[in-house]
């Protein structure tokens, strides 16, 4: 037998030495070594590692040869092994007395033989191994079963755990063969259920996959079952085996299985009783004083308060300084009183129905926020506790809270969540029912959204309003949603306070150790109805019959501790009466309160921001040309050559175009946006842009993050390297969620006023999946909770034939929710009118038409003396529209935001000749502008852009009305009549008109008819709608104009042909830049009759009209010269004609009018930014020297006076290597515990 084994060892050694890795032989050899390892364990050899590795085989072979020569020359244990007496070894080792009784020899030889026989099969016929005696097979099977049983308890024990204090759900105890009442039912043990119960006293060696033995390696089967039963099927049901991380499962196993690990000391028990007394006492007191008031009491889940308290204590001990809590109604007042320690008198005063001394609508008491900074007496450390105000909409506070926590971490430079910790308290029905829970969970491990672990506490009262779980969810547990992020879930019976507190400890330690989400599901009940006035017996009769018979948890626990001698009855009674007195005193105090202040319930105070500030002062938003130049240069340059960053060629072309724009002192949309961001970063304002695909931009216009074309996750973001002491810039592609991500950014914006926080929708249409956040937080947050936010929503919006769901940002909804009174003409003579108007409205709604206005608008967001959400309807085709460009002078110190852009062309210059005054907003202006040319009505039709819709610019509107006293008044919009701005502007125009007594005009609508669908998906219909709109404003094209345009087309085509033949090199490229995605569909409809003028189109990456596109319209130089350009372009060299001829220009018909006075050289500079001439001046080369300088002088950000955001970690590296998970926020010393598990050689559990 031993000879046989030795032969096997020698074979193993040889096979390993020969490097036959991956072969069957090799695998079998390894198996055999493992078997020998088991043998060694069984024999009492404990240095298993050295025994088991391949090299040891040589050693063993040597020993064997030595032993053959002289058996005494080797250690006795080897002698026993080689001579085949190894069975005696176990006996020889002193074992506990119990072990001698029925020690089951571990399955040594059988496994080894199995390996050998396998090897034989694989190698095609070695000598046959002797058959194993039947008793050995039994041994092997028994050990396997023990392993399987242990694993069954670990992974399925929670199914049999005693979690329900009502005893309605959960397993029934069954009597085992030994007479023990056990929970573990067939669903846990499955096929092993009856297998071994006939031999409960058999002794087994515990496998390494369990720690139930503590220091003991051997236990009887009975003891194994009892321990597993206690751990996994008691009052805690732990779900953790779904976690794919071995480190984490081992950690949890260790915490639960180690004997004695879950015990509390006497002092701890006493403290727990005291806290439970407060929790229950608070609800009892409220019930006594306000029996019919809604308070959403915690009775039945009272233990939640001591649990949260334990989390707070433990986390503060571990270094957490700020705890943010998000929760709904249930138990909220109790949390405020007993966790935050908001004075109870303040809470009680909310019941008195007092008037508020400050403005706002206020909110019900169980929605209010709280911010408390206090000394944690258990740890003697200061801790900030925030409960974020929330709406009724359950669970929607989650992402808001997470965003706020993330921002606080950023502010504090907390790069791993060691100082800031979020806790979210859920209801069982809402946790499983609300989709936002899932969306928020999925943010938990994203680099730019992680909060390094959130502690989720479910106050599970087993009913949602009146619906019981069988009808409110399909999953077994309400917490199953947390499994998507591999969170461990601890279900615990609410009537076992000690188990609950142990769970609280474990989840806190887990979060500290792993920085990941974790869940406690406190399974309790609801002693009253949904609210205190509800009769629960209507719908849950049987449940409530049981509840009525149950003693409160406090009483049960007090009885237990009295029995254990931890407290005496009189001590407990004293605890209860002490707390009652505290409440009574607070009650007396609260009666003296005569008014309330909403602002004393603010959850996000901004200390220092408002003090000493003139809130009505609107600071200038323009910046110096030098600043523009610096930002422009950097934004248009690739990383310096020394970094050897391989950028995409298409990107280099885009950068070259940007370089050209900077040289020409003109900015397109992306440059305008970059100017806003860059200049704010320079001023120490942290900028964060988040949303789906925002790094590149849905329409491929932004390209803030350049990707190395040869190396994975190597990126470059020029806006991060503008100035050495700039604030950090975060641009982050989000998960595909609107609701959670918008909520997150709103929360982020609440943390500090010194940041510009922007959420961009992929298309504005999709913002309706975030409607709850928009309605309940952004639109009304300030009114309800006196809390400001400057969050910006960028919603791509415009009718471009892209169908019902890619057209409308639903402007009408935002405008409908705006709270400025349409019937009140404000005091426009007030010197602070503009600021006052901004300050008093709930949000700002803009539909901007120029990059400069976007720049000023974004900068105004942080230059105002207060914060207000901004909803901006962003363009799509305008992102590349040649007319939608602004000269640098529109960004300089003398410039400012234009709420309304008047007509500065011939019509504006001679207003008396104007027959129609057309007000419009956004992209439609460019359509009207072009059509006015085609219709030759530049002198008779004035086009006025309302850039800021809300608050309505009454002063500027009135000026326009006065300027054109004889003109017919029109509001033209591309949206359907029931959409867009019409319903909002109409009554306000009326109010403005009524203000003037002499005025007899009213404004009429021009646009699409009402429709339930925001846009057609049919291009033909889109175009016919467009034509109808144009006709309604300008009438039919006259025959002369038709003829003229026809001739223009021909001329243009001939010219283009000639140009193409004479200058092939300057021909526009026929395909978009490689790698870049197509820009949005053009404005205009595709199929059309010739001679019908088209709305202007954006260039499509230089691509000419597609096959289905209509024939080009004619635009001749002469007519172009007559036309007026949009004002923003009237003063500089950036000519539309230049664009028309440019390499990226669309077909001539789509080009805007050219100015004859444009200098050809200027035009040329625009014409072909992709030409070799431009490429010759490679941006990298051009920037080389300056970039080098910048590089050299780009230290890490330094603190500045602009708020703590400057202190937040910036990106000191020029080229960033993106981590797979966290964006550089984990310090080197804080190694991700997961990292070790990425090693595929590590064993799987
Ligand atoms: C999004 C949303 N839908 C419906 C409601 C109405 N509502 C208020 S409480 C409640 C039951 C919530 O049950 P659960 O989450 O278990 O919490 P509990 O009240 O039982 O603590 C419902 C349906 C709501 N507030 N929010």
How would you describe what is shown here?
The longest helix is centred in the N-terminal third of the chain and has 24 residues, at about 265-290. An eight-stranded mixed sheet has the order 5-11-12-10-9-6-8-7. A seven-stranded mixed sheet has the order 17-14-18-19-21-20-26, sandwiched between helices. It has about 1250 residues and is α/β, with parallel strands linked by helices. β15 (about 705) and β16 form a beta hairpin. α2 (about 25-45) packs antiparallel against α8 (about 110-125). The site of thiamine diphosphate has 14 residues, from α18.
Q: Characterize the overall form.
A: globular
Q: What ligands does this structure carry?
A: thiamine diphosphate
The low-confidence runs, each spanning 5 or more residues with pLDDT under 50, are 12-55, 86-129, 1065-1212, 1222-1245
- Percentage of β-strand residues: 5-15%
Distance between the termini: 32 Å
Structural class: alpha/beta
The whole-angstrom Rg is: 37 Å
How much is the average pLDDT? 80
How many strand elements? 29
């Amino acid at each position: 037998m031993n000879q046989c084994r030795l032969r096997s060892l020698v074979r193993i050694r040889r096979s390993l030495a020969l490097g036959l890795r991956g072969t069957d032989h090799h695998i079998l050899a390894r198996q055999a070594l493992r078997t020998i390892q088991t043998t060694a364990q069984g024999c009492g050899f404990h240095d298993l590692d050295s025994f088991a590795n391949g090299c040891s085989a040589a050693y063993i072979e040597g020993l064997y040869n030595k032993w053959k020569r002289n058996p005494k020359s080797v250690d006795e244990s080897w002698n026993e092994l080689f001579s085949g007496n190894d069975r005696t070894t176990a006996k020889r080792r002193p074992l506990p007395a119990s072990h001698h009784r029925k020690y089951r020899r571990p399955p040594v030889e059988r496994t080894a033989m199995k390996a050998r026989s396998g090897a034989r099969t694989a190698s095609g016929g070695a000598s046959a191994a002797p058959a194993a005696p039947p008793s050995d097979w039994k041994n092997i099977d028994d050990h396997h079963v023990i392993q399987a049983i242990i694993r069954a308890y670990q992974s399925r024990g929670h199914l049999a755990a005693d979690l329900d204090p009502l005893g309605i759900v959960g397993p029934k105890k069954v009597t085992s063969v030994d007479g023990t009442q056990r929970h573990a039912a067939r669903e846990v043990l499955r096929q092993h259920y009856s297998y071994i119960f006939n031999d409960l006293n058999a002794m087994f060696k515990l496998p390494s996959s369990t720690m139930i033995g503590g220091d003991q390696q051997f236990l009887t089967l009975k003891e194994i079952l009892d321990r597993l039963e206690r751990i996994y099927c008691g009052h805690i049901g732990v779900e953790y085996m779904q976690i794919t991380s071995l480190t984490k499962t081992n950690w949890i196993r260790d915490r639960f299985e180690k004997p004695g690990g879950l015990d509390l000391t006497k002092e701890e028990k006493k403290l727990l009783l005291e806290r439970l007394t407060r929790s229950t006492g608070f609800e009892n007191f409220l019930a006594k004083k306000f029996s019919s008031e809604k308070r959403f009491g915690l009775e039945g889940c009272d233990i939640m308060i001591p649990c949260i308290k334990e989390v707070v204590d433990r986390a503060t001990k571990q270094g957490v300084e700020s705890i943010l809590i998000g929760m709904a109604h249930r138990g909220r007042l109790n949390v405020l009183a007993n966790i935050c320690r908001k004075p109870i008198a303040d809470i009680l005063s909310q019941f008195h129905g007092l008037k508020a001394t400050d403005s706002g609508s206020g909110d019900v008491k169980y929605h209010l926020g709280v911010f408390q900074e206090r000394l944690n007496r258990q740890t003697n450390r200061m801790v900030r506790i925030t409960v974020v105000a929330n709406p009724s909409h359950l669970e929607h506070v989650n992402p808001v809270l997470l965003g706020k926590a993330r921002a606080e971490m950023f502010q504090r430079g907390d790069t791993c969540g060691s100082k800031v910790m979020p806790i979210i308290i859920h209801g069982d029905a809402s946790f499983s029912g609300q989709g936002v829970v899932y969306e928020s969970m999925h943010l938990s491990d994203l680099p730019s959204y992680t909060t390094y672990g959130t502690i989720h506490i479910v106050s599970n009262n087993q009913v949602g309003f009146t619906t019981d779980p069988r009808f409110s969810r399909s999953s077994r547990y309400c917490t199953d949603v947390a499994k998507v992020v591999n969170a461990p879930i601890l279900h615990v019976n609410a009537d076992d306070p000690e188990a609950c507190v142990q769970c609280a400890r474990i989840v806190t330690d887990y979060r500290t150790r792993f920085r990941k989400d974790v869940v406690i599901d406190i399974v309790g009940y609801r002693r009253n109805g949904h609210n205190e006035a509800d009769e629960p017996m209507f719908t849950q009769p049987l449940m409530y019959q049981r509840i009525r018979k149950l003693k409160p948890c406090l009483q049960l626990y007090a009885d237990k501790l009295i029995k254990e001698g931890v407290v005496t009855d009189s001590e407990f009674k004293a605890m209860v009466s002490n707390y009652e007195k505290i409440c009574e005193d607070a009650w007396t105090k609260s009666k003296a309160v005569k008014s309330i202040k909403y602002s004393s319930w603010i959850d996000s105070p901004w200390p220092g921001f408002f003090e000493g500030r003139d809130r009505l002062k609107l600071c200038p938003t323009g910046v110096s040309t030098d600043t523009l130049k610096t930002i422009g240069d950097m934004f248009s340059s690739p990383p310096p050559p020394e970094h050897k960053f391989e950028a995409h060629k298409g990107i280099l072309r885009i950068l070259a175009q940007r370089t050209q724009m900077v040289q020409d002192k003109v900015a397109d949309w992306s440059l305008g946006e970059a100017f806003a961001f860059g200049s704010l970063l320079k001023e120490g304002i942290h900028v964060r842009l988040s949303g789906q695909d925002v790094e590149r931009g849905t329409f491929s216009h932004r390209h803030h993050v350049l990707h190395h074309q040869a190396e994975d996750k190597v990126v470059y973001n020029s806006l991060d390297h503008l100035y050495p002491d700039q604030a950090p810039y975060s641009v982050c592609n989000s998960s595909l969620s609107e609701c959670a991500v918008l909520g997150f950014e709103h929360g982020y914006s609440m943390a500090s006023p010194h940041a510009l926080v922007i959420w961009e929708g992929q298309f504005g249409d999709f913002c309706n999946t975030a409607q709850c956040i928009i309605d309940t937080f952004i639109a009304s947050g300030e009114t309800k909770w006196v809390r400001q936010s400057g969050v910006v929503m960028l919603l791509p919006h415009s009718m471009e034939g892209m169908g019902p769901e890619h057209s409308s940002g639903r402007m009408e909804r935002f405008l409908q929710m705006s709270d400025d009174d349409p019937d009140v003409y404000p005091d426009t003579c007030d010197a602070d009118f503009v600021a006052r108007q901004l300050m008093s409205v709930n949000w700002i709604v803009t539909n901007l038409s120029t990059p400069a206005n976007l720049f000023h608008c974004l900068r105004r967001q942080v230059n105002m003396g207060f914060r207000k959400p901004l909803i901006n309807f962003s363009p799509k085709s305008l992102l590349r529209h040649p007319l939608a460009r602004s000269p640098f002078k529109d960004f300089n110190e003398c410039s400012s935001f234009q709420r309304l852009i008047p007509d500065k062309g011939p019509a504006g210059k001679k207003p008396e000749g104007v027959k129609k005054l057309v007000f419009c907003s956004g992209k439609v202006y460019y359509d009207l502008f072009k059509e006015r040319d085609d219709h030759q009505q530049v002198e008779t039709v004035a086009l006025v852009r309302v850039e800021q819709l809300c608050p309505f610019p009454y002063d500027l509107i009135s000026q326009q009305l006065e300027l054109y006293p004889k003109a017919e008044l029109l509001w033209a919009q591309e949206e359907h009549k029931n959409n867009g701005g019409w319903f909002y502007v109409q009554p306000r125009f009326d109010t403005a008109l009524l203000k003037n007594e002499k005025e007899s005009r009213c404004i009429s609508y021009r646009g699409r008819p009402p429709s339930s669908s925001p846009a057609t998906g049919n291009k033909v219909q889109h175009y016919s709608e467009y034509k109808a709109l144009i006709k309604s404003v300008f009438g039919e094209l006259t025959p002369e104009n038709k003829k003229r345009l026809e001739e223009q087309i021909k001329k243009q085509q001939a010219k283009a042909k000639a140009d193409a033949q004479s200058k092939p090199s300057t021909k526009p490229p026929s395909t978009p830049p490689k790698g870049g995605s197509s820009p949005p569909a053009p404005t205009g409809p595709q199929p059309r009759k010739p001679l019908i003028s088209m709305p202007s189109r954006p260039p499509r990456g230089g691509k000419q009209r597609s096959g289905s596109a209509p024939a080009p319209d004619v635009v001749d130089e002469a007519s172009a010269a007559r036309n007026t350009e949009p004002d923003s372009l009237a003063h500089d060299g950036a000519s539309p004609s230049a664009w028309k001829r440019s390499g990226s220009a669309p077909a001539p018909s789509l080009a805007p009018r050219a100015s004859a006075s444009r200098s050809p050289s200027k035009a040329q500079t625009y014409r072909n930014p992709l030409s070799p001439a431009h490429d010759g001046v490679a941006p990298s080369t051009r920037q080389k020297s300056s970039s080098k300088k910048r590089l050299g002088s780009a230290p890490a950000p330094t603190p500045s006076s602009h708020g703590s955001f400057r202190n937040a970690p910036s990106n000191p590296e020029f080229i960033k290597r993106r981590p797979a998970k966290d964006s550089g926020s984990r310090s080197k010393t804080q190694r991700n515990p997961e990292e070790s598990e990425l090693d595929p050689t590590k064993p799987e559990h």
